[in-house]
Write a structure and sequence with these properties.
By secondary structure, this protein is of the alpha/beta class. It contains eleven helices and nine strands. The radius of gyration is 21 Å and the shape is elongated. The termini are far apart.
Length: about 290
């Protein structure tokens, strides 16, 4: 029997959703059930447990049933919810953009730290291939003297980034968005003026096997980086020196096994390799280069 045909509390709904997700082999079934119930009920955070005692309307139950069906069909939870958290931001996400990941929070944090070391703090940041806007918007929110440009070659992805920009609040006045492939999205007036280039480019090899919930749902153009996974990094590093101001930095999220090759590309492009930073799991994740 459908949940929508029953008179139940949200506690009943949460238990049933967790059971169905668990039976389908979904990891963290109870956590995912809670996220779906929060979305359908409107009881979030500290209100959630109070909300479990409340009755659910037929319309709310229909919404929950629809979301649960999508999740059981394999659609990632983030896309089902249409939103996901990233460094304190509540971001809109859709299949037009990658799902924000914890390792990318490391990338954003390093960009903020780099800006804080400048005198005066802040500067011009370019987020190349921004997707949802996660990195660039986090930088703008956390560094109140940063000016940020978001770029993406995908009009659909940039529409998501602009929607997230609209919800950023006061920091939005320091952010702009422009469509184009890598540096082609930037005006010539920015040549030699950029303080930090930051990017999470596609870095999965074309022949690399991905889990179905990634391969079947997330945009291939934001995942696949050519035969060695470094097509995007190659373009970014080759042209970075001309766009950076002296002592300007490039921060790239890559796979650990790509760091040596990417460092060689950076040096060939006239950059100095500063460091390779680990992610939260301790794996080499972010290449940090600088214009001498």
């Amino acid at each position: 029997m459908s949940l929508a045909a029953q008179t139940v509390t949200w506690g009943d709904v949460a238990m049933d959703a967790a059971r169905r997700l668990g039976d389908a082999g979904v990891a963290d079934a109870e956590v995912q059930a809670r996220r779906l119930v929060e979305q359908a009920s409107g009881f979030e955070g500290g209100e959630y447990y109070v909300g479990l005692t409340r009755g659910a309307s037929q319309r709310q139950l229909a919404h929950l049933d629809s979301m649960l069906g999508r999740r059981l069909a394999g659609e990632p939870l983030q896309y089902v919810l249409g939103r996901w958290g990233f460094r304190g931001l509540d971001l809109m996400v859709s299949p037009a953009v990658l799902i924000p990941r914890p390792e990318t929070e490391t990338l954003a944090g390093l960009a903020v730290a780099e800006l804080s070391r400048r005198h005066p703090p802040g500067g011009l940041v370019v987020d190349l291939g921004t997707g949802s806007g996660a990195v660039g918007l986090a930088v703008a929110a956390e560094c109140d003297t940063a000016r940020v440009v978001l770029t993406d070659s995908s009009a659909e992805a940039l529409a998501v980034a602009r929607a997230n920009l609209a919800g950023l609040g006061r920091a939005a006045v320091r952010v702009s968005a422009s469509q184009g492939s890598w540096y082609e999205a930037l005006p010539e007036s920015m040549v030699g003026t950029v303080d930090v280039v930051v990017s999470n480019p596609p870095y999965v090899r074309d022949d690399e096997t991905l889990p179905p919930d990634v391969a079947d749902w997330e945009p291939a153009m934001a995942l696949r980086g050519g035969a060695d996974g470094l097509d995007g990094a190659r373009r970014i590093l080759a042209d970075a020196r001309g766009w950076l101001r002296p002592e300007g930095s490039v921060l790239l999220e890559l796979s650990p096994d790509q760091m040596e090759a990417a460092a060689a590309m950076a040096q060939a492009g006239g950059l100095v390799v500063e460091a390779v930073h680990p992610d939260l799991a301790g794996r080499e994740r972010v290449l940090h280069c600088r214009r001498a």
